[in-house]
Here is the input.
Amino acid sequence: MAFSFRETQLVKGMLARGDKQHDIAAYFGVNGGRVAEVATGDCDYPTAPAAPADRLPPPGPYVSLRTKQDVINILEEAAELIDGAGNASEEAAFASDVLKTALEKLR
Here is the structure.
C-alpha cells in the first residue's frame, strides 16, 4: 500500500519531528518499509512537503490494531455483562449506553 499525497506529508512531518519509523508505521497500520520509502524519497510523492507540526497527530507510540481489538472485546464483554445482569437501574442503562458508544467509535 502506497501512501497518498496527504499521508506522505504527514509521514514527512512525523519524521521531521523525530518520531520513530516503527511508531509511524503503527499509526498508519502499514509495514515499516512504507515509512522507510518516504524517508529515503523512494515513494510516489518524493517532493511532497512535510505537514506542519500543528497538523500532525500526537507523537507515538501508538496502540496496535491487536490492542485495539482487545479493547473492543473487553468492552463488548462488559456491555454483555451489564445487559445480562437484569439490573434495570438508570445507572446500568447509562453504563451500557456509554460502552456501546465507545464501541461504535472504536469500530
About this structure: Helices lie at 5-17, 21-28, 32-40, 65-84, 90-106. The chain has two domains: 5-55, 65-106.
